Amino acid sequence: MTDEKTDLTVADAATGDADGAARTAAPADVTPQGHPMHRVLSFVRRSARLDARLQRAWDAYAGRYLLDLNAGEGSLDVRDGFVLDAAFAERTWGNANPLVVEIGTGQGENVVAAAAAHPELNFLAVEVYDPGIAHTLLLAGKQDLRNLRVAQVNAPELLKATADATLAEVWTFFPDPWPKKKHHKRRIVQPTLAAEVHRALAEGGVWRIATDIEDYALHVHEVMDGLDGWRNLGKLTVSLPTGHVGKGNADLARDMPHADFAESERFDGRILTNFERKGLDAGRVIHDFTYLRV
Ligand SMILES: C[S@@+](CC[C@H](N)C(=O)[O-])C[C@H]1O[C@@H](n2cnc3c(N)ncnc32)[C@H](O)[C@@H]1O
């Protein structure tokens, strides 16, 4: 879902992107010298028009489901001072049920199905892309879901704004693969995000991750398996190449040295989205991870 043609950072955003589309710059983080800080983002902001059906869904349901926590009109940053804590959750969802946050919900198929199947849990869908948000609103509105809310913000910012021990689970399913080696730093699973997720999870909370990209699976192991404070609950042994390959070179990985890693069975709380189905149809293997906050 990501267009890799541009290499957008906050510094770029302040000056406009490569194709000249108008955009709202995130408030530029600045160095002590006043220069814009180079913040690596896991997505490229694209201006996408909503078709009539999605626009109608937005108009009908944004008021009910979309949280007002952005720094400004069109900004994907969380506004200064916003805190996602138990009090906010209770005001927003109307109860103190456990809260599950899905990062990068795409079209919303999974989070909506999970919310419908688990009225005893609260769900927050976090996505940046307008059509995905609108589609999620459409699905939620059609089912009249009461336990789902949607945030259109850069997920790491929201995690940063989340109070300690607020979340029951965090889900990141099929994150954008960023296959080129020079883009691996844009992959959303990073030690900095892991630290925020760890802090935001309550005792016994888990971060569930899934990917259909073998090189991303290795990346997840590299980021997560050695981090203090996490236990990989995986019971399956999976053999993966121990070196990274860039875009278009996945075949080279077969001849690289391999090592064993622990991964999970398919998370049965995840429905088969179009995105996952396409990966399976292309012959890719799904890697599931469950990391317990310890
Ligand atoms: C490859 S798609 C997968 C969507 C969905 N999880 C699925 O399985 O169908 C990854 C999604 O993550 C979203 N995304 C990427 N970086 C994000 C960020 N920093 N904050 C929120 N969403 C993000 C993208 O817009 C995209 O919709």
Secondary-structure map with pairings?
Blueprint: H1 10-15, H2 52-65, H3 86-93, E1 99-103, H4 109-117, E2 122-126, H5 130-142, E3 148-151, H6 155-160, E4 167-173, H7 191-200, E5 201-211, H8 214-224, E6 230-232, E7 236-241, E8 258-263, H9 274-281, E9 287-293
Parallel strand pairs: 1-2, 1-4, 2-3, 4-5
Antiparallel strand pairs: 5-9, 6-9, 7-8
The structure holds S-adenosylmethionine.
What is shown here, in short?
With 294 residues, the chain is of the alpha/beta class. The chain has 9 helices and 9 strands.
Task: Provide an overview of this structure.
This is tRNA (guanine-N(7)-)-methyltransferase. Pfam families: Methyltransf_4. Substrate binds at residues 180, 212, 273-276. Residues 1-29 are annotated as: Disordered. One of its GO terms (molecular function) is tRNA (guanine(46)-N7)-methyltransferase activity. By secondary structure, this protein is of the alpha/beta class. It folds into 2 domains: 1-46, no CATH class; 47-293, Rossmann fold (3-Layer(aba) Sandwich). Helices cover 29% and strands 18% of the residues. It is built from 9 helices and 9 strands. The strands form 2 sheets. The protein has a 7-stranded mixed β-sheet with strand order 3-2-1-4-5-9-6, sandwiched between helices. Strands 7-8 form a two-stranded antiparallel ribbon. β4 (167-173), α7 (191-200) and β5 (201-211) form a beta-alpha-beta unit. α2 (52-65) packs across α5. The longest helix is centred in the N-terminal third of the chain and has 14 residues, at 52-65. It binds S-adenosylmethionine (SAM). S-adenosylmethionine binds at residues 1, 42-43, 103-106, 126-129, 132, 154-156, 173-176, 188, 273, 275-276.
